[in-house]
Amino acid sequence: MFNTGLIKFKDITDKYGHLTPIEGKVDIPFEIKRIYYITKVGEGVTRGFHSHKKLHQVLICVNGSVKIRLKNPKTEDIVELSDPTIGLYIGPYIWREMFDFTEGSVLLVLASELYDENDYTREYDFYLEEAKKRF
Ligand code: T46
After folding, report:
1. Closest residue CA from atom 20 of ligand 1
2. pLDDT digit string, tens, across residues 78-92
3. Tens-digit pLDDT profile for residues 7-22
4. Is-contact 50 122, C-beta < 8 A?
5. Which of 27, 31, 38, 122 suits a disulfide with 107, CB 3.0-4.6 Å?
6. Ligand 1: does its nearest atom lie under 6 Å from the Cβ of 2?
7. 36, 60, 99: which to mutate for ligand 1, most atoms within 8 A of CB?
8. How far is the CA of 96 from the CAs of 12, 58, 117, 130, in angstroms?
9. At a CB cut-off of 8 Å and minimum separation 6, what does 119 contact?
10. Which of 39, 50, 94, when mutated, tests ligand 1's pocket best, judged by the most ligand atoms within 8 Å of its CB?
11. Alpha-carbon span 91 to 53, nearest angstrom
12. Does the model's pTM come out above 0.85?
C-alpha cells in the first residue's frame, strides 16, 4: 500500500542471543525524535483509529504479536507483526487500527516528531475527505 511498507532489520546472532540495531536515517527513512511502546493491552481491545498529517513512524512488535489494519480511501490491508527484526513503516494520511495483541506483547514505535495532538486526525469521515485529495 502506498505510504506503508515492511523493513527488515539486521539480526546479529551469536551464542548469547539476538541483537537488532536501528539507526535513524540508516535503517529507517527518518531521524528518530521519539520512542514509545504499548504494553498490557487487554483481550479484544483495538487501539488507534486515527491518521497523522506529518508524522512518519515505524512499528515493531518486539515480543508477542499484534495485527495492524491500514486504510487509505482506496484500499485496506491487515499486517501481522510478530518478528522483532521487521518494522512496519506508516507515513502520513494512513488510517491505522491495532488489534489482537497477544498476552505479553510489546509494540515499540519509532517516531519522526515529538508528540503533537494537532497532527492527529481522529474523525474517520474527515480523514476520508482529506486523504482523498492525496490518494
Ligand atoms: C500511533 C499508534 C501506532 C502522549 O502523551 N505522548 C505520546 O507520545 C503518545 C503516542 C501518546 N500520548 C498520549 C495521548 C493519549 O492521551 O497517550 C494517550 C494514548 O494515545 P493514543 O490514544 O493516541 O494511543 P494509540 O495506541 O491509539 O496510538 C498510538 C499513537 O498515539 C499513534 O501516533 O500511530 O500508537
Report:
1. 48
2. 999 999 999 999 999
3. 999 999 999 999 999 9
4. yes
5. 38
6. no
7. 36
8. 30, 12, 16, 15
9. 52, 53, 54, 55, 113
10. 50
11. 9
12. yes
Tens digits of residue pLDDT in 46-99: 999 999 999 999 999 999 999 999 999 999 999 999 999 999 999 999 999 999
Q: What is the CATH number of domain 4-132?
A: 2.60.120.10
Q: What DSSP string runs through 60-72?
A: EEEES-EEEEEE-
Domain boundaries, given as residue ranges, for the chain: 4-132
Examine the pLDDT at 132 and tell me if it is beyond 80: yes
Cβ(67) – ligand 1 distance below 6 Å = no
Closest CA to 2 of 67, 71, 57: 71
Give the rounded distance of the alpha carbon of 24 from its chain centre: 15
3-state secondary structure of 18: strand
Neighbouring-strand partners of residue 71: 76, 95
Residues constituting the chain: 135
Q: Which residue has the cell 482523498?
A: 132
96 CB near ligand 1 (under 6 Å) = yes
